[in-house]
Amino acid sequence: MNPQDFQRSMQSLPFPVHSLSVRQHGRLLSEEYFEPFKKGTLHRMFSVSKSLTALAIGALIAEEKLSLDARITDFFPEYVPENAHPYLTRMTIDDMLSMRTCHKNTTYKINLKENWVRSFFVTAPDHRSGQIFKYDTSSAHTLAALVKKLSGMGVVDYLRSVFLDETLLSKDAYMLTDPFGDEIGGSGLIAYPTDLDKIGQFLLSVLNERVSEEYPLLTRDEPPYNEAFLKRYAAFIKEALSFKTSTLHEGKTLDECQGYGYQIWQIRDGISLYGMGGQYVLLYPQIDLVITTTADCQAFAGGTQILLDSLRNIALGLGLNPASDDKAMAGDKAATSGTKAYSFGTYRILDNPKGLISFSISETEFRLQTKDSLYAIPYGHEKPASVVCDVNNQTLYTTGRTLPDGSLYLNVKILDEYVGSIHILIRSDENSATLYLRKIEESLFDEFNGFFEAVRV
């Protein structure tokens, strides 16, 4: 492929792409800007901000000012209620980075007129932290406030101090603030497209063990930025870019089903810093390739996957050797499972607004007892299991698999008049369990929505 091919592929899309850069082996193959955007045009990067916040948290960890197992409530006593729920007080930095908080939604969106950071601590938790992925922008927002507490600087200014001036971010880049003066660390980054390219090159240099040669300014004479700092920082970044938790139960596109690290997505055959509307930094370490875009596909249904497919085609044209389509379609690209995080048996579900009473899981069947009904759903491993549901006479077609993070995932297809699907995720041990249910269907199975905590009986 040549630069003209890259340009034509972006111009053929049914929504506006604002910029594109393609860099392989450190060489810029293409840098395109599409009217009215130019090279010197600042751009909102949306959730790429989360990845920058994670890089700042990693630098604090490398400075030994913070640890992954530290509890977030210890840093914000001014916001933590008396008698705070253990689901909140046990939440760690690791839980927040990997989007496994105790909240089912972004907390500050409940009431934008209340303090956004405070909302993270006073909103009633839904489930235990550290169990199941659920996208939560208030987690990154709170982590950005933590960066300010520990460094005395905002995320962008702190990273500039770590990297020295414009090594990672241009002098004009900044982070928007919320109505209470806190940086919007989950979506507020304003930067140049070239900043995305610089970020991608840095991350790829870490993965490919080139960081010490290509970024000497990270190791300086004055503490804390020495060789030991760089070693700790590189270790954190490798963890951030690795598979940490399954997203198959929540992903809305094929690439969003491949897993999550620390505020960074896994995608087919690569890794992505991922901002709403098409703000991407795509890393393909296999072929030493970084692709970045800015765009606006928000108004086009399915635009996210269309853009990602087009960018992946560029990578394929530059030598990417893809995983099998069957593996990608299955989601969660990590090849091997971790420690099993579920235990067969029966669990009593704690008080909940859905009226769920208990569930049980065996090697071949999931059963859910509600106040009105009993759902018995057999599942297969290699091949789906089929059953006509006694509750509503709908045919269910179910497969189960152990995901790379050890959880059990059941994919239930509804095949009769009410076509749709149900997604069931279980993390349990000998004493307790977290159950996540999500139904995508218009009229039935209303009980199958939300997080539920349970104890073994």
Describe this structure in words.
The chain has 457 residues and is of the alpha+beta class. The chain has twelve helices and 19 strands. It has helices at residues 3-11, 48-62, 86-89, 93-97, 116-122, 137-151, 155-163, 193-207, 211-214, 227-240, 303-317, 325-330; strands spanning 17-24, 27-33, 43-44, 174-175, 189-191, 265-267, 270-275, 279-284, 289-295, 345-349, 356-361, 365-370, 374-378, 385-388, 395-402, 408-414, 420-428, 432-440, 449-456. It has a ten-stranded antiparallel sheet with strand order 13-12-11-10-19-18-17-16-15-14, with no helix packed on it. A hairpin with a 3-residue loop joins strand 17 and strand 18. Helix 2 (48-62) packs parallel to helix 6, helix 2 crosses helix 7 (155-163) and helix 2 (48-62) runs antiparallel to helix 10 (227-240). The N and C termini lie far apart (61 Å).
